[in-house]
Amino acid sequence: MSIRREVGRLFSNPALLIGLTGTLVLLLMGIFGTLLAPYDPSANQSSIIRVLPDGTSSIQFPPTLPDAQHWLGTDPLGRDQWSRVLAGAWLSLSVVVASALFRLGIGFSLGLASGWYGGPFARVVRVIAVGLGTIPQLLLAIMLVLVTRPLGVAGFIASLAVVGWPEISEFVRTETLRAKAAPFIEAARSVGAPGRRLITTHLFATVGPQLLTVAALETGAVLLLLAELGLIGLFLAGATFLVGDFGRVGPLRSRVPEWGQMLGGIQFYAITAELPTLIPAVFVVLASAIFALLADGLRAASDPFSARRVMPGTFGVLTKVLVGALCFSAVGFVGVNLRPGVMSMDEGRSVAAKTAETTWPGSEFVAGVARFSPAAFGIDRPERLTYYYRNANEEVLRISFMNGDRLAIETRKYESEDEIDFTGLKALPAGLMSYDDPLAKAEEQGGFDRRHVRPADLVRVILTWPGDREAPVYSVIYGSTQLDPLRVCCFDARTGETVDAVVGQRTSPPWPVPSDCAAARSVIRQVGPFQWYFVQGALLSVGGPFNLNYQGDNFIQLIGGQGTPRLEAATNHDDTAARADVVNAKPTTTVGGQAVSLATLRLSKPGCWNLRISVGNAALEYTLYAYPSDCRPQHEQFPPIPDVTPLPCVRTQTAPMGNA
Questions:
Q1: How far apart are CA 114 and CA 109, in angstroms?
Q2: Element containing residue 133 per DSSP (H, E)
């Protein structure tokens, strides 16, 4: 038969032409939609300002109607609808295709096996199929989605696949029984064809064309089921609800651009904002109609009694093209989105960078936060992964992934929710360690006890690169900065090693520390509601409310270790016979989830001291510089100290206390 006649038959089948063309358009939208989207599909806008031709400005508040800037208008959160439709095509259609293929695989395998082999296996399959068939598909899908929610995208696809396979299984079983009794099968058996060849060659040739038609119908059915789940508020990367400070009230927080999730807004905005809810519904209806037309066209093309029937070779080419496109979409989606576990800090950063480049080109990544809510997941899974980008105007862009899910993205301009001072922060490089190790170390350094004392505390692991540091660092904050937080700081973001907290400026010293005294740096650390100055070791920190030491008594607090503080060794550089003591030492107790010991460090003389202090098995060696007693503000208010002769706050020729 000539090619011209075959082409003529194809053109005489309008359902097939429309279905093939529409399927190709949907496939192109799925592959290139994100690249073609004119705006970031997740970027919210509280207002839309336009400059009119006459030079004046107009302001509109979402949702807005279609115009030259937003072809399909904006939704109630100010996100561009056309961008969300384009970006959502990849996710929605890939989920639909993957679910349909898995559903077909289940139904075809069970139907073929039960029809060909029969026996007890066939009876068991029929009983299960009949049982599932008695449950309404939407109700069964709701139950399965809720049960498999912890599995994320994989669970969602599996739920859609399990629903609907009994009908496919029964259809394939019936066709298999009919083909099994056909004369050509009997003829093949009579000449000694093995069972495997009978199935792969003769049976597939009979059932295959009908199965392709069923595949197109099932793809449309899965899409409609996805839309129905979206209408009732169940979809990928979460559920539709209203969020507020005191419960589920307030603006709709739909996250991922996906058609089913976009439909979820109907229950909230169908009356007040008809167009934003109508647009995704139109695309779902059009896509479902395309799959239905494709199925009808394929049925007519494969029907031997139809006037629009095409030759088996032509139909085989169509089959290979369609199956290849569907498998490419499903495999591509699985490879990109089905990742085990939650995202690491660097994985999320690579995804957020694309959004940042679309929203604010040229902006730089300056902070990352893994937020853990004990009420939601404990510290096993972050409630939110947030990435902060800063543009040339020092403005901040927040990009968040809910529940550490790469599909649940939220983009907010000019907004910070983690109490970070962005002034002076350096841009963060790629390849840094994730938040797991710093969080584990913070748990060992008092965080675990703190969470047991205050189980409702928010836990945040914050990645920044302050301008006074040589490398990026992680800090871990338990609770809010307004309500007695515990701040465990800091961990090198490249190596994971514990490093100093922020280096504190010395507060009005009487004169500089002499150059021959290698005094340890004072660092600031949050202790209860106050900032204290410490010198820090791996297991023990020693410090007080001021970063200066004086001859006489110095109140100190020791964090780390278990036991009573002890002074192991003390040496004065100028007088090796000078004594130092730890007095009024108190056994370790737990305060705010930290192991804390209190004591007084008594220094008999000023000058440079080398000390070794221990609490249990934890010890710290460091060098301090003590000023003469009279240098202490209001020194006259302090009573005499045994064995300590106060020295005046003056420099003499014999005291090497530095130059002015």
A1: 8
A2: helix 119-133
